Amino acid sequence: GAVVSQHPSWVICKSGTSVKIECRSLDFQATTMFWYRQFPKQSLMLMATSNEGSKATYEQGVEKDKFLINHASLTLSTLTVTSAHPEDSSFYICSAREAGINYGYTFGSGTRLTVV
Amino acid sequence: QKEVEQNSGPLSVPEGAIASLNCTYSDRGSQSFFWYRQYSGKSPELIMFIYSNGDKEDGRFTAQLNKASQYVSLLIRDSQPSDSATYLCAVRGWGAGSYQLTFGKGTKLSVIP
Question: In this complex, which of B45, B92, B103 lies closest to A43 when CB atoms are compared?
């Protein structure tokens, strides 16, 4: 089946530094990538949607200059958390949609970010 | 604002029983409905999707959809301790380019051995 590899699985960084999270579709072309954030005991909150070769569309309240999304190829999308602060500590998950497949997008394994 | 509502639980059922999980949604134009299972600290995994009114069965799982009532449910037969997880209901809108999923907050299921 379709697999999305997400790295790193966890990261601890100092406040003020930047962290990059990668998601790669291993055996399909990810036309669309969704980036979610999940706080403890909360549901997935969509942060942004990116289509290959286009600028990402951010949800209301998500700072595009803080959460940089790049989807330069059909198999790789990255999320960079810039100038991270403790309140950015969360579980970040990507989800990829393959062109023509509209049911059951494939999730990455998630990245646990802790900002100290 | 599209909303997906689920009872947060926890829902406790004995092993071997039927677990019933419910979800309502606000957008009457929603087309596709998904159930995901999420273990603690892990990302969601797809259990089933449904887009037509009625029932859809896959092994021990049955999804039920009633678009008139804007209601979708998931039945888990012969529940096992390994089914203990949080179950997320997700809804996809309609129209060209509407690929985003809106998730409910999830229902935590505990299957008691």
Answer: B103
Residue pair B38/A110 in contact by the 8 Å Cβ criterion: no
Instruction: Give A108→chain B minimum CA distance, Å.
Output: 7
SS3 content of chain B, % helix, strand, coil (to 5): 5, 55, 45
- Distance linking the first and last C-alpha atoms of chain A: 37
Chain A residues whose CB is inside 8 A of the B106 CB are 43
- Chain-chain contact of A43 with B104 (C-beta, under 8 angstroms): yes
Q: Do A110 and B42 touch (CB under 8 A)?
A: yes
Q: What is the pLDDT along chain A (116 residues), one digit of tens a residue?
A: 789 999 999 999 999 999 999 999 998 888 899 999 999 888 899 999 998 888 899 999 999 999 999 988 889 999 999 999 999 999 999 999 887 766 768 899 999 999 99
| The token pair that represents A116 in the structure block | 């100290």
